[in-house]
Amino acid sequence: MIAAVNRFRADAGCPPVRLDAALTRAARAHSVHMARHGRLTHTGAGSSTPAERVRSAGYRAGRSAENIASGPDTPEAAVQLWMDSPPHRDALLTCGYSHAGVGAEHGDGGPWWTLALAARR
Does the reported pTM lie above 0.90? Predict the structure, then answer.
């Protein structure tokens, strides 16, 4: 998924994002949460927000964003879905983001995808 994101970022003149372990923990946990509940939502376990999940995972973000999807069979298809949606495309192509984390969970209505994007303070 990161390779697909970085191809679009390069085309837009943005630097690549690097995979970050804390962001990946946050993204994976959120994908599991969505799959368990069968609902595509930015509200996570304990009513957490994307920014709270990133912070709880140990990433000190100055700014962050989250893209979610359910159904695309491949990471590339999920990224293309986001590129076709203006708000999600804007998040992917925000040049200020330097790190990313990816979560995927299989289940009814899935796979359930989460992409966390962030830049440190």
Answer: yes
